[in-house]
Design brief:
This protein has one domain. It is about 20% helix and about 30% strand. It is built from 2 helices and 6 strands; from the N terminus they run E-E-E-E-H-E-H-E. The strands form 2 sheets. A 3-stranded antiparallel sheet has the order 2-1-5.
């Protein structure tokens, strides 16, 4: 189902840019995330999660170069990303 209204899309921000957040499916594939309301996003990801408004077409365009074709709208629970393990030289 395509949404005609802009959705609430979680993002990561740095001092110079903003990036759309993706998640992993149980099979390991990546998926984009979008929500129909700020309340739904906060319920799934927490109130501190930054977001922006994007059309589904704009989000697809941003995710396509990453090989992400699926966007999950209104997921109920989004697990926190796994911590990045530091690599130690052998």
């Amino acid at each position: 189902m395509e949404h005609s209204q802009p959705l609430f899309v979680p993002v990561r921000t740095t001092s110079s840019c903003m990036a759309v957040v993706t998640a992993r499916l149980p099979d390991g594939g990546r998926v984009g995330l979008a929500f129909t309301s700020a309340e739904a996003l906060a319920a799934a990801m927490g109130r501190a999660q930054p977001w922006t408004r994007l059309s589904i077409a704009a989000e697809r365009a941003l995710l396509a170069p990453l090989g992400v074709a699926r966007i999950q709208v209104d997921p109920v629970l989004v697990a926190a990303p796994a911590p990045v393990k530091a690599r130690h030289a052998a």
